[in-house]
Write a structure and sequence with these properties.
Layout (H helix, E strand, L loop, with lengths): L2 H25 L3 E5 L16 E5 L11 H4 L11 H15 L6
Antiparallel strand pairs: 1-2
Helix pairs in contact: 1-3
Length: 103
C-alpha cells in the first residue's frame, strides 16, 4: 500500500471513530452497524466512497438495510424521515462531533 493511500485510509478511520463518539453521545448508542457498499451489484447507488454508520441500541427493532431515510433511530416508528428531521439530526450530531476529543 502506498504511503499516500495509507494516509487516506488513516484519515477515514479517524473520521469513523470520531463519528462513532458523536453518535454515541447524541443517541446513547450501545453499538453500530457499519456498511460500505462497493459496486452496483453490492447495493452502491452513489458513485463515491461513503460509509454508512448506524447507531444501535439494545432492543431496537433492527434495521439491516442502509437507506438513510429509513434507518434513523427513533423508538417505534421506522417511517421515512423528512428533510427537516434529517437536518435536525445532523445538527445534533455536528454539535457532538466537534466536542469529540482524542481523534
Amino acid at each position: 500500500m502506498s504511503a499516500k493511500l495509507m494516509i487516506s485510509v488513516q484519515k477515514k478511520l479517524r473520521t469513523i471513530i470520531k463519528s462513532k463518539k458523536a453518535l454515541r453521545k447524541s443517541f446513547d448508542a450501545s453499538g453500530f452497524n457499519l456498511a460500505w457498499n462497493e459496486g452496483v451489484s453490492a447495493g452502491q447507488t452513489i458513485d463515491h466512497l461513503h460509509i454508512h454508520l448506524l447507531p444501535r441500541k439494545k432492543g431496537d427493532s433492527g434495521v439491516y438495510k442502509y437507506e438513510p431515510r429509513e434507518f434513523l433511530y427513533r423508538l417505534g416508528s421506522r417511517v421515512k424521515s423528512t428533510d427537516d428531521e434529517l437536518n435536525e439530526v445532523a445538527d445534533i450530531v455536528k454539535s457532538k462531533f466537534f466536542l469529540s476529543d482524542g481523534v
